What we know:
Layout: E1 2-5, E2 10-13, E3 17-19, E4 32-34, E5 36-41, E6 44-53, E7 58-67, H1 72-81, E8 85-88, E9 104-105, E10 111-112, H2 114-118
Parallel strand pairs: 5-8
Antiparallel strand pairs: 1-2, 3-4, 5-6, 6-7, 9-10
Amino acid sequence: xxxxxxxxxxxxxxxxxxxxxxxxxxxxxxxxxxxxxxxxxxxxxxxxxxxxxxxxxxxxxxxxxxxxxxxxxxxxxxxxxxxxxxxxxxxxxxxxxxxxxxxxxxxxxxxxxxxxxxx
Length: 119
């Protein structure tokens, strides 16, 4: 990451990719993996860090780096325009909280958090 400024703006340059970090592979085979992902999590949206878990053949969403305040469709379009992946967490149909990880479903197959599923 490179952070600079000019007279009117703080400028943050974040690489779009990072080197794959896999201790089980030869160094010559390491490639690039995404460094950022667009995320909608309930009422929050923005660009989040991607945590490289190549040794497990996956990646994980990390913390938000930048929060945005766009309409949902405009945010998704921005991610596409920037060639950045996008993920939207499912929302419980009863309490409207984002669901992380496993979840249940209601009679119509809609997502329920485990707290609401017990009710």
